[in-house]
Design brief:
Layout (H helix, E strand, L loop, with lengths): L1 H9 L3 H18 L6 H8 L3 H8 L2 H12 L13 H10 L3 H19 L2 H29 L12 H16 L5 H15 L3
Helix pairs in contact: 2-3, 2-5, 5-8, 6-10, 9-10
Length: 197
């Protein structure tokens, strides 16, 4: 009976998990990755550190999963508008301009932390980069199957690079946050022509 009770107590509901992830993102925005501690997450969420470590293993995994949970781009594989342009536009429209600005600032801070932290890089690759690349491949495969994109187009391997590049470079080059209007025009002017669409 004790084992069953313990197992039930250690389960985290989806609602509680979402609360924890939101608290992690708030702390990241406030103090950055390096200053974020599991003690601070535990205090902010009224959780025990033992629960956090048991559920997520450590700070890098917790942060990567929090970012993934908050990222509207996941589920791209489920979008099927009937055209590649429609799919990429639908992905872009999942976030409003305010959300994009917050995500851009958060990702800039995390990009710096990733360079000096192999655990964070590994967690990001496992929980964000590889799953998102797999979803993009599904979208591109549907475009190939529909005859929109040639299977041997060399730009196929760089779609993710182009999408991230447009998002990240907007702030550095134009000193403005990424917006829906900017990204939609970027997709039409850069990504789709590169793919021959």
């Amino acid at each position: 009976m004790t084992e069953v009770t313990t197992a039930r107590r250690s389960r985290i509901t989806p609602e509680r998990e979402a609360e924890l992830y939101e608290a992690v993102l708030e702390l990241l925005r406030e103090v950055g990755y390096d200053a974020l501690t599991m003690d601070a997450v535990a205090a902010r969420t009224k959780s025990s550190k033992a629960t956090l470590y048991r559920q997520w293993g450590g700070k890098a995994e917790l942060v990567a999963k929090a970012v993934r949970h908050n990222k509207p781009g996941f589920g791209l594989g489920e979008i099927d508008t009937g055209s590649l342009r429609g799919d990429l536009h639908a992905l872009t429209m999942r976030s409003d301009d305010c959300e994009m600005e917050q995500s851009s600032a958060l990702m800039r801070g995390l990009a710096m932390a990733i360079h000096g932290n192999p655990d964070l890089l590994k967690a990001f690759r496992e929980y964000l980069i590889e799953p998102e690349m797999a979803e993009f491949r599904q979208v591109l495969q549907r475009a190939i199957d529909r005859g929109e994109v040639r299977a041997d187009n060399p730009a196929i391997d760089y779609v993710m690079h182009m999408m991230i590049g447009g998002f990240a470079a907007r702030t550095m080059i134009d000193e403005q946050p990424p917006t829906q209007a900017f990204l939609l025009s970027y997709i039409d002017a850069v990504v789709l022509p590169a793919l021959g669409v």
